[in-house]
Amino acid sequence: MNERGPVAVPTAEGEAKEDETREDKAREDRVKGGGTRGDEAREDRVKGGGTREDEAAKGADATPQPPATSSPRSDSADPVKALLHRHRALCERAVDPLEIAARLEAHGMTDRTAARFRHRDVFSLAEELYARVPRVEETRTPEREVAGAPDALTGWTVLALLPGALCAVTLGGAYLTEGRPRLVTAAVGAVAVLLGLRASLHRGPSHARRTRPTGSAGTATCWLLAYALCGDGLLGAALDGGPDGPWPLATASVLALALAWAPATWCAGLFAVRARRGLAASRSLGEFADFVRPLLLGVSAVFLSALAALLALCGAVLHEPVAHAGAGSLGALLFLARLLIAHGCPRLPAAVLNSAATFEAAALATVLIGRLPGCSILTVPVETAVGAWGPGAVPALACGPAALGLLIHATRTLTRATVHTTPLGTP
Amino acid sequence: MGDAHVRIGLITEGGYPYASGDAGLRCDRLVRGLGQHEFDVYALSRSERQEDEGWVRLPPQVNRVRTAPLWTAVDDGVRHGRRTRRRFAEAYGELAAAICAAAGGPVAPPVAREGEDDFGDSGLSGLSGLSGVSGVSGVSGVSRVAGVSSVSSVSGVVGARGIEADRFGNALYALADLARDEGGLVGALRSEAAVRALERACRAPGAASAAGSARVPDLLTVAAHLERSLRPLSLDWYGDDGLGSVDVCHAADGGAAALPGLLARHFSGVPLLVTEDRVPLRTHYLEAAGSTPVRALLASLHARLTAEVYRQAACVTAGDAHVRRWQERCGANHAGLRTVRPGVRPSRSAAPADLADPYTLVRVGRIEAAEDLDCLLRAFAEIHGTEPRARLRVIGPLDEGPDGAAWIEDCETVAGKFFPAGPGETEGVRADGGRPVSFEVIGAVCGAPGLVEAYAAGAVVVLPSVAEDVPGNLVEAMFRGRATVSPDVGAVAEVVGDTGLVVPPHEPMALADACLALLRDPERRARLGAAARARALELFTVEQNTAAFHDIYMEIISRAPVRRPFVDEAGEPLPFAVPAEAHVPWRWAQQPQSVELVPTPKSGRTGEAVR
């Protein structure tokens, strides 16, 4: 112990340069110990304050010749070549010399080892390796697009049929019952449809992943649907001075809208998947936008034709006239709003839904207020519109321009790459 | 000097006040060891779980603790107007251009910016024994030449790198200013405008080729990472009631913690001290994943950020020479670099009791790779063949407890290949029979009682071949006075010095021979153990660590004091409260002996000359 004391002191600080270099040399010997460097080692030991322990350690390391996994042949003209062969993949993949240095160090390379490759330190060795190995463009693995697809397909595609099915069952029940049970059935059915819609909203592509759905948008949607069910009849009755007793309900439109939830969800899913695939494949943001714009228009067109077909079908089955313009524009509005909210742009859709609901409520209100003395002028616009195009004109005027506005907004926002990424924080 | 009172802003990332922080113990010892100073702790938390686990007990010298999450960022909902949007796009574009610029990399040598009171240059130059004045003038001379006209190629390169570094720094500070003035930076960083600016920078002429091949998903990944990295810009820590009021910012572990310190220096001129026991940049390289453009851009981002931190820091400390080499490589200024060895445990530990079983090898630490275990067992098979009484105890993993049973099972399976549990193998080995290799899990961190006993129980301690900066296991074994056999990775050779055997990594024969040599020679074992303990007591005690930081605080305060206006009780500025000499960023008199400025803030004066 006592004779060891003074030996340890010079290495204690490790701050002065000279000490460090000397220490390095001593260490290098101790580490390597291979037969090739025997002479130099002895020399260093003499001048570098090496100790008996060093010597012993060296002896211990040196006796067997380890399988030369990392020692290059010293007579070779190019000692780096073997190293280069061994770490070729690492070097080809590296983005700068420091990465090679970091990975070499993780493999156990130190400055002492680097000295055997005739380099001052690991950094300069890494620089040589980086310069000598050509970079390889790695083949891209399409890992993004498949993520999340398998489990999604089973759940939400079936769940999307739920609102339509519930609505059909409710209508069937209401058709078969009379009086009070009919009312109960209708009320329970309405709640069930809304719950089914809600359940479907929380799964699949319509689920708003990035932002919490705004409450006002939900209320506005409920109001718009309620108006689609009974608004036209109520407005017509009100214009005729009523309503005197129950007015006709547009069950076919609502059934078609509920059934259209399934194609809407499927279209949204198709849009999301195709857009993400396009994202992975596109080289620039402009290219991506050019890819998404026709996709969005195409998906909207597919949905609209599906909705039109459903409207016609429901009208035929229920023997009921169908307001194609009103229900169609409402369906388009809801589809686009949901698409935008699901992709994290909830502000404008919520505002547009609110304004459409307000428009419809205002149309009803003006007709009712117009009955007050002196306010008859208020009913003129609604009367004119209904006179020209029928009661379906109000929802068509409320939702049509709104849907068009949302479509224009969507072609600008949904073509951004940022809305198609998974939110930050979740993989 | 001992009673000077410094207010230190300790910035930690996922560390100190949280109970589960990995660097927590180190900071706790530092804070407790420096009771004469005041600490304001600014902590960035890494995960929600960490926040839920609560804090450690804080000593009275901790004035206040402010925390902020780094794992999430809440958009404050501020929508920028047209002018602010343009301002953001300009700053972000500059930042992106600096990141994408070709042939950058972190190899830029430290270049002093002119016309600035460069604490790093003039301040600590005396510390490392260099002639501070000549060093400073030499460096700034180069930059002056380069700034005026890049005539020679060398100065041209240096100048270009300096400009590049300036560009990154300026863009960073522009974003920080924007966040402070207007808010809403989180939303802006996530916006399409940011991605578009990044794309423009990648396609610009002069961008690196890897950046040029970035596709849209790459751009999105990089933009998201940038947003995460720049979250400290949106913090409200930099006011006069926050980091602006401290005397020194101490970023306790580089990486993300250094950024708030950098901004405090930018906003309030508070000198920055950066401590790194491991190299964050190296960790980043090892963990980087993704396509080539992503890795290239992120590497560039981190390298530039690191370089800017080193450039602005008044002092950068490294845990060992290995870290120091990386810091120098990444542009840290020689003059402001110091090595402060981590304090692993208090020196009052009892002298090692001689409990050792003379034939037991103890190997402590998690086994990272299968080849590591393979190498160890191969070596031990060799030892066991020569010395049948030898036994091996493998102890781990130390950090994550829950998978301990699975870990043991895995290891047993591998060990079964080397030492089949047949009767022929076990006879004559031990009275109780069984395999000569045993695996144990001792949970918790270094210093758990079971672990200390485990170290003491072995005659020789074998270290894992995992590149670790200042391996705690090794130092612990040295404190226990045990002879060690360690593979030559990372800072091992520097830590162990002459007091243990160092073998090439991944070479079982060398390992076996070193162990055998020690097993056969008890006297040498004892001598090495005693020397190791003496070395550990000299280098790795908490006291030396605390004292070193105390000195650095004093040094920084004296060289680079924060210049705040002195006001009287009524809030009126006090003229002549600070002597004119205090504003001189360098020493006028070039004397062979250094003159130290010692602050005595309590008495109202900023400093006095003491020889």
TrEMBL record, chain A:
Protein keywords: Membrane, Transmembrane, Transmembrane helix
TM annotation in the entry: 153-177, 183-201, 222-239, 251-273, 294-318, 324-341, 348-369, 389-408
Keyword Membrane: yes
Entry annotated with the keyword Thylakoid: no
UniProt feature, compositional bias: Basic and acidic residues: 19-58
Domain of life: Bacteria
Chain spans, region Disordered: 1-80
Name assigned to this protein: Integral membrane protein
TrEMBL record, chain B:
Gene3D superfamilies: Glycogen Phosphorylase B
UniProt key word Transferase: yes
PANTHER family the UniProt entry points to: BLL3647 PROTEIN, GLYCOSYLTRANSFERASE
Source domain of life: Bacteria
Name assigned to this protein: D-inositol 3-phosphate glycosyltransferase
SUPFAM superfamilies in the record: UDP-Glycosyltransferase/glycogen phosphorylase
InterPro entries: DUF3492
Domain (DUF3492): residue spans on this chain: 7-96, 213-334
